[in-house]
Amino acid sequence: MPVLRPKGAILSSSERAERRRRLLGLGATLLAALFVSLITTFARITYDAGSNPATQVFLRSLCMMLVLAALQLALGRHLIVPRRTVVTTIGLGTCILVMSFGYLSSVFYISVSLAVLVLYTYPLMVGIASPILGRERMTRLKALCLIGAFAGLLVASSEGFGTLDWRGIGFALAAAAGLACIALFGGRAMSKAHPFAMNAWMNLWVALAVGLYLAASGGPQFPQTAAGWLATLAVCLCYTLGILFMFLGLMLVSPAQSALTMNLEPLFSTLAAILLLHEAVALRQWIGMAMLLVFLAISTFTGMSRRGKP
After folding, report:
1. CB 149 within 8 A of CB 175
2. Are 52 and 194 in contact (CB under 8 A)?
3. Which candidate, 7, 66, 32, 35, places its Cα nearest to that of 201?
């Protein structure tokens, strides 16, 4: 039986420290969601200035690799990972490549608000794959949440997003599949070495793969305007800061609490697209997005409560 605390009772120092830790973790995760949500909007600006998805993926992966490697060395840690872990970093790097290239390519063909909505089919993919892989049991409530989230997706994507180019939809679905694979297998894999070292290696593989592609396809396409270069810098900074804050949040709160806060990313992305790109989002899209986020939140909350039981 939990001990009931009288109203107004003074928290102990350990309880105050735990509360500060939790608030700091949720704040860091909120910043992670905000920074990650801005990436596609700034990427769209770079495309309008003459750049392309491959160039942006290469630059942001290179930036992330250098920053994480520098942090790892500054903290007195080495960058070498066990030989058996190198294969793991290649596998996860492939997932990141599919996710990054797919997501940034999608907004080359469709609106940012539609791209982020399609990307968030990944919790549905995870929810379906987890019982098949034996990760967790499919309950009636979880099944209801998956159906409700999918219904919200259908309502939101029915009309009002402009041209529904199949290439943009395909790229966004590929990105969702890559993100689902990371969610399903990344947690266990990341425990094999320090997250900074693992991510430095994963982004190294991404930068190498995209760099070879660029070399074979005529080289990178850099922005031709000052605004395009500022947007490119913003893409690199938002990607790097988003991942760093996400790791900080995961060190302070549970993965379920982190996932719940990261579910705000579609809302942030849509608002950024409205403010910076002047995209129009109809009432039907807001209703569908609200349905999607509410059912994802319910699913996450129930997962948290199950894990919290003795």
Report:
1. no
2. no
3. 66
First to last CA, the chain: 11
The tokens of 129 are what?
């794959």
- How far is the C-alpha of 182 from the C-alpha of 123, rounded, in Å? 11
E-strand ranges in 105-191 read none
Q: pLDDT (tens digit, 9 = 90+) per residue, 263-308?
A: 777 778 888 888 888 777 777 778 877 887 787 777 766 655 554 4
DSSP designation for 10: P
Q: Which residue has the tokens 């995961």?
A: 250
pTM above 0.85, yes or no: no
Long-range contacts of 284-288 (CB under 8 A, 24+ apart): 284/155, 284/156, 284/158, 284/159, 284/160, 285/113, 285/117, 285/156, 285/157, 285/160, 285/161, 287/152, 287/155, 287/156, 288/117, 288/152, 288/153, 288/154, 288/155, 288/156, 288/157, 288/158
Task: Give tens-digit pLDDT for 143-199.
Answer: 787 777 777 777 766 655 555 678 888 999 999 898 888 777 776 766 777 778 888
